[in-house]
């Protein structure tokens, strides 16, 4: 069976006129084809910059393998998403919305959980990406001295003897003392539980970047796609060059890839063993990599904005997946090949601020090349921010239209942009930005909590496909995934829960529980919309999308107890993995 060609079917009522239908007032506009969605999703490869150092710090020489395996899993899972997206040509918001339509028959609370968790996973890309981009801009405007700079050595010679601390802390103190004031200035800072919050210079620069992205997206998805096409070409082409040129000029340094064993401890180059602690670090790498490698599913967030959703949906996710497959395997491999584990453990690589300098060294460039790569890194991060705002805002929009989230999120402007959802994204991320800009610990805590929600969404969505096959078997599918890929996706749903249960604790001891609490926040939000705003009834449009006429018809559950058994099994796998694996 071909996996690359959508199945030819007779169009459903109302679908035939998509290509030329006028935009309806108050709704998203059908103004792009699959290439538009591809360019909007082209910011996903830049997500490798968020955690390439963090994963290397926890998995050592296994890092390249972690990225490759994770990307292969994400690509296989995408065929499941392509099928369920084709069932709903009038919806936007991505795979979580299409999966929620399967679960709503079995639980009013599980369905909005899928949508909520997907938004919580995607939305922080705005703040996390802005914080890294802000650090690059700060570095260009107010660079801090290197640890071995003459000024630092002179300062240590003068003041070092009087400091009662380790040599590493003395060097850090010297760098801080000689850094421009703007790098340490903050208007306000505080600590709340496991994270810190700071309104520093990076925060204000990051906020300005997010406002700029908001202005571009205000023009609608067609305008966004046009802008991202050119930024994408500027970013993706150099990323390919950086990934390929060092391999051609220097070959492969196999010593940087063997022996294939875990680290003995995080952020230390000493090799460990394949014991429980080693496996826990590896699963922690698979956990955090999923946040980046699975993310190209955002390319199907725009189904109701496709001119021809029957053809465009599959092409969008398939070709976006091929782009990510190349980038997420090539770039980490080349990084590790050139830098080695010791180079990858550099704190500047872990927090993202030293990635551009490392790229310049990889291609043999000087200061000019490094400056150009800094600009490209900023553009790459802006690309990921634009991708995130476009996708996450449409998830909020469709969640509102379907009756999961408050009504105001369903507002759109004259360009068909979901402005109510975009403003919510922006305000939420200003708070997250203040946390992400505080320090690396707070940055990775946000990333880990976000990914806890993403794994929950992934589990629910991969299982939704077989529920749709049972409950909606009579509905035509523009693309029907091979059954073996659908089954493999269902198995991966439980494998991902192992990553979550075992791996979240690698990044923060309370990350898993913080993630579960964050996911549970959908309960009061949904209850407000469903029981207070809507009086306990779903919007009529939701029943039409489910291909049923009434709420009574929706109550037919052909899958019986199977969805509930899947949920129970999922909880058991999650808790067992969390109990068994430990550092």
Automatic annotation (TrEMBL):
Topology relative to the membrane: Multi-pass membrane protein
Pfam families in the record: AA_permease_2 (PF13520)
Keywords linked to the UniProt accession: Cell membrane, Membrane, Transmembrane, Transmembrane helix
Membrane-spanning ranges: 37-56, 62-82, 197-218, 230-249, 276-296, 316-335, 372-397, 442-462, 483-504, 510-528, 561-581
Listed name of the protein: Amino acid permease
Lineage: Bacteria, Pseudomonadati, Pseudomonadota, Alphaproteobacteria, Hyphomicrobiales
Principal location class: membrane
Family matches, as InterPro entries: AA/rel_permease1 (IPR002293), APC_superfamily (IPR050367)
Keyword set includes Membrane: yes
Subcellular location, record wording: Cell membrane
Taxonomic superkingdom: Bacteria
Keyword tRNA processing: no
Gene Ontology MF: a single term: transmembrane transporter activity
Annotated GO CC locations: plasma membrane
């Amino acid at each position: 069976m071909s996996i690359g060609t959508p199945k030819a079917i007779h169009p459903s009522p109302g679908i035939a006129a998509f290509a030329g239908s006028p935009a309806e007032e108050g709704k998203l506009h059908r103004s792009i084809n699959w290439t538009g969605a591809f360019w909007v999703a082209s910011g996903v490869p830049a997500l490798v910059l968020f955690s390439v150092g963090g994963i290397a710090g926890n998995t050592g020489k296994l890092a390249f393998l972690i990225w490759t395996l994770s990307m292969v899993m994400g690509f296989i899972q995408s065929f499941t998403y392509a099928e369920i997206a084709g069932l709903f040509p009038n919806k936007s918001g991505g795979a979580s919305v299409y999966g929620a339509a399967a679960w709503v028959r079995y639980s009013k609370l599980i369905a909005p959980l899928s949508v909520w968790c997907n938004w919580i996973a995607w939305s922080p890309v705005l703040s996390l990406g802005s914080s890294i981009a802000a650090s690059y801009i700060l570095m260009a405007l107010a660079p801090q001295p290197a640890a071995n700079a003459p000024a630092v050595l002179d300062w240590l010679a003068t003041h070092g003897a009087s400091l009662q601390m380790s040599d590493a802390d003395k060097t850090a103190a010297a760098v801080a003392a000689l850094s421009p004031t703007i790098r340490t200035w903050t208007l306000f800072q505080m600590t709340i539980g496991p994270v810190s919050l700071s309104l520093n210079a990076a925060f204000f620069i990051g906020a300005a970047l997010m406002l700029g992205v908001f202005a571009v997206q205000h023009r609608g998805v067609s305008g966004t796609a046009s802008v991202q096409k050119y930024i994408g070409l500027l970013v993706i082409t150099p990323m390919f060059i950086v990934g390929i040129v060092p391999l051609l000029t220097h070959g492969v340094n196999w010593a940087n890839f063997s022996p294939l064993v875990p680290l003995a401890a995080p952020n230390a180059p000493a090799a460990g063993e394949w014991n429980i602690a080693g496996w826990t670090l590896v699963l922690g790498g698979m956990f955090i990599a999923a946040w980046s490698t699975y993310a190209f599913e955002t390319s199907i967030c725009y189904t109701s904005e496709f001119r021809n959703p029957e053809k465009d949906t599959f092409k969008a996710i398939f070709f976006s997946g091929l782009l990510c497959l190349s980038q997420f395997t090539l770039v980490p491999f080349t990084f590790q090949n050139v830098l080695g584990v010791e180079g990858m453990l550099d704190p500047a690589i872990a927090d993202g601020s030293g990635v551009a300098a490392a790229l310049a060294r990889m291609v043999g460039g000087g200061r000019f090349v490094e400056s150009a790569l800094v600009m490209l890194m900023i553009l790459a991060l802006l690309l990921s921010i634009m991708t995130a705002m476009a996708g996450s805002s449409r998830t909020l929009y469709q969640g509102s239209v379907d009756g999961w989230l408050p009504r105001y999120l369903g507002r759109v402007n004259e360009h068909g942009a979901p402005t109510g959802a975009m403003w919510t994204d922006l305000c939420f991320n200003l708070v997250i930005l203040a946390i992400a800009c505080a320090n690396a610990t707070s940055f990775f805590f946000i990333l880990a909590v976000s990914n806890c929600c993403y794994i929950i969404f992934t589990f629910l969505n991969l299982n939704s496909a077989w529920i749709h096959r049972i409950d909606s078997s009579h509905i035509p599918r523009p693309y029907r995934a091979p059954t073996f890929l659908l089954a493999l996706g269902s198995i991966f749903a439980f494998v991902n829960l192992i990553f979550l249960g075992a791996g979240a604790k690698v990044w923060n001891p309370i990350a898993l529980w913080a993630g579960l609490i964050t996911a549970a926040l959908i309960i009061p939000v949904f209850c407000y919309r469903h029981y207070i705003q809507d009086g306990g009834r779903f919007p009529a449009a939701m029943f039409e999308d489910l291909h049923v006429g009434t709420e009574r018809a929706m109550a037919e559950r052909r899958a019986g107890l199977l969805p509930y058994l899947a949920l129970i099994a999922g909880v058991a796998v999650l808790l067992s993995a969390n109990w068994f694996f430990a550092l």
